[in-house]
Amino acid sequence: MSEEKRQFQRVPFHNEAQLIGPKGHVDIFLLDLSMKGALTTKPINSDWEIFEQMPFSLKIPLDEGHIIAMEVTVAHVGDDCLGFYCQNVDIDSITHIKRLIELNLCDSDMLQRDLEALIKL
Questions:
Q1: How far apart are CA 60 and CA 19, in angstroms?
Q2: Which of 21, 75, 95, 98 has the smallest number of Cβ neighbours within 10 A?
Q3: Cα–Cα distance measured from residue 65 to residue 67, given in angstroms and rounded to the nearest whole number
Q4: Domains along the sequence of the chain with CATH
Q5: Per residue in 33-51, pLDDT tens?
């Protein structure tokens, strides 16, 4: 078994999301989230195509009308999931992601390392 080395900690966060691309939008389901990416289900609509290196917007609604918005590209395609790499994210979305990670990691040192790594990019 190979050891997976991630620069950013992922936390499970099951939530509805919307993927928006040049050919429209599709509803998907978020499986986990990090400061620099997300893992989602594949779109159910089989004629909706995923192209690697093509930019997409990933919108994750939160309660009280807040939203996490990321500009992403496809990092990997699995049998039933899509991994996205975050190319750009606004400060409000980073704040929401930071809070979700804080609530799920229970390890402030790991969160601090993620924030320092994000700043270095």
A1: 9
A2: 95
A3: 7
A4: 11-120 (2.40.10.220)
A5: 998 899 999 887 655 666 6
